[in-house]
Amino acid sequence: MKVLVIGGGGREHALVWKLSRSPRVDKIFCAPGNAGISEIAECIDIKADDIGALLNFARYEWIDLTVVGPEAPLTMGIVDAFKREGLRIFGPDASGARLEGSKVFAKDFMLRYGLPTAEYKTFTSYLHAEEYVRLKGAPIVIKADGLAAGKGVFIAESHDEAIDALKKIMKEKAFGDAGSRVIVEQCLRGEEASFMALTDGDTIIPLATSQDHKRIFDNDKGPNTGGMGAYSPAPVITHETADVVMKTVMNPLLKGLKREGIDYKGVIYAGLMICDGKPYVLEFNCRFGDPETQPVLMRLESDLFDAMKATAEGRLKDINISWKDEASVCVVISAKGYPDSYEKGKVITGLDTLKDEDNVVVFHAGTSINNDNIVTSGGRVLGVTAIGKDIKDAKENAYKAIDKIHFDGMHYRKDISDKAIKR
Ligand SMILES: Nc1ncnc2c1ncn2[C@@H]1O[C@H](COP(=O)(O)OP(=O)(O)O)[C@@H](O)[C@H]1O
Ligand SMILES: [Mg+2]
Q1: Which residues does ligand 1 sit against, CB inside 6 Å?
Q2: Do 304 and 208 fall into the same domain?
Q3: What proportion of the chain, given as a percentage, has pLDDT over 70?
Q4: Residues 314 and 372 in one domain
């Protein structure tokens, strides 16, 4: 079978890596991919949101399964376009991708079907939003409705911060149309975790739990990033809590999607806040999390290709998914300056020394090849992902591997997974 993976980050490297281990998969293409992916797949120079070119490529190459990594092509309707041509594709169509593409749609949906989430109100008028903020007081959370590359959410600790956020989104239009509607919501205190599941609209199978580390510096200090590391499983989601998530979040979600005629096939990702053991949904994503997918797929025992193909074909009920008992930890190495403007083109050394390790895989995020060297080309550069008998062991393995890697200005957090170890 021929597979096309769309995207070029650490998530996509992990997807390609796991798919390449399936005996059913003969050939993998990745658009646009990166230096690490090019060692196990053929990278093609098409951007992840160039739906027309991707469609032509898939038709021309007789691709059996296309897997969409990032959210942008999903919200733009890549799945609708492929399905119209009779091509098999893994991911929700544009109507399902609204769960990520519009926070207002997601919140209203949760309200309609009784999913646990923070109390909120939606505004299009700055004055009305300001009035509501005054009424509710700080701390309070302000969110732009649309996709904002992880920058559209403000946790306002004071009234002034809340007003600044409203002004930035609604008056200065910092996020363009994505900010034409704004959500003001209750601030929840607790511990976050990521809960992903495969669904074909009828069956839903939870994946291993994980936890991301959003901030750039140790002890959750500094600005938010795309994610600086993750581990799996997340002990904050106990077996009991996972059952509650299935009962109060995932099953009602599926019922709601059905009721609204949305044919959702792919991954659904719930960003959760666990408050005293009770899960609340902060947001939905319509694709695999990055970096969470890296440690999660390291633990996956089953064949990913079979599971994805069955999902796309609506046969998920035939699939069983099993996990390794070991834990995994992924530490992201970023470029100097990230998450603001960052350096590029730095030569990365030491990767060869890690190629034969059994318990470590270095997933590439922002890398490319220049004169036979692997060089940095993105803000998040590598996701060093290790497995171990428990989280502590996996963490040690990951950091031991990092000691062998070098590039100028490299930065990584030293405390990935400490929260789980301290539990
Ligand atoms: N209601 C809330 N209470 C407390 N923190 C929140 C709330 N909503 C979001 N956050 C914080 O803001 C982060 C980003 O919000 P999220 O809704 O996940 O948006 P996005 O990932 O699209 O930027 C979350 O990971 C969480 O740390
Ligand atoms: Mg989020």
Answers
A1: 118, 141, 150, 152-153, 155, 185-188, 192, 214, 271, 282-283
A2: yes
A3: 100
A4: no
- For 261, the domain range is 191-318
Q: What is the pLDDT of residue 408?
A: 98
Two tokens, residue 148: 């904002």
Q: What digits encode the pLDDT tens for the residues 102-140? A: 999 999 999 999 999 999 999 999 999 999 999 999 999
Query: Does residue 214 sit in the same domain as residue 311?
Result: yes
CA distance 141 to 158: 10
- Domain assignment of residue 101, yes or no: no
Residue 150, pLDDT above cutoff 90: no
Choose among 402, 287, 388: nearest CA to 334.
Answer: 402
For residue 150, which atom of ligand 1 is closest to its CA? 23
The residue whose C-alpha atom lies closest to atom 1 belonging to ligand 1 is 187
Total domain count for the chain? 4
Q: Is residue 100 part of a domain?
A: no
User: CA geometry: angle at 92 spanning 80 and 226, to 5°?
Assistant: 120
Strand partners, 388: 327
Q: Report pLDDT digits (tens) over 60-101.
A: 999 999 999 999 999 999 999 999 999 999 999 999 999 999
Distance in angstroms (rounded) separating the CA atoms of residues 142 and 187? 9
Q: Does residue 342 share a domain with residue 263?
A: no
268 strand-pairing partners = 197
Same domain assignment for residues 345 and 305? no
Residue 274: predicted pLDDT = 96
Token digits of residue 294: 């890296």
- Cα(387)–Cα(306) distance, rounded to whole angstroms? 23
pTM (global) more than 0.85? yes
- 355: domain CATH number is 3.90.600.10
Average pLDDT, the chain: 97
Instruction: Give the pLDDT band of residue 35 (cuts 50, 70, 90).
Output: very high
| Together in a domain, 265 and 300 | yes
C-alpha 30 – ligand 1 centre gap (Å): 30
Residue 116: inside a domain: no
Query: What would the two tokens of residue 317 be?
Result: 């009920």
User: Does 229 share its domain with 267?
Assistant: yes
How far, in Å, CA of 99 to CA of 96, rounded? 6
Expressed in angstroms and rounded, the spacing between residue 100 Cα and the centre of ligand 1 is: 13
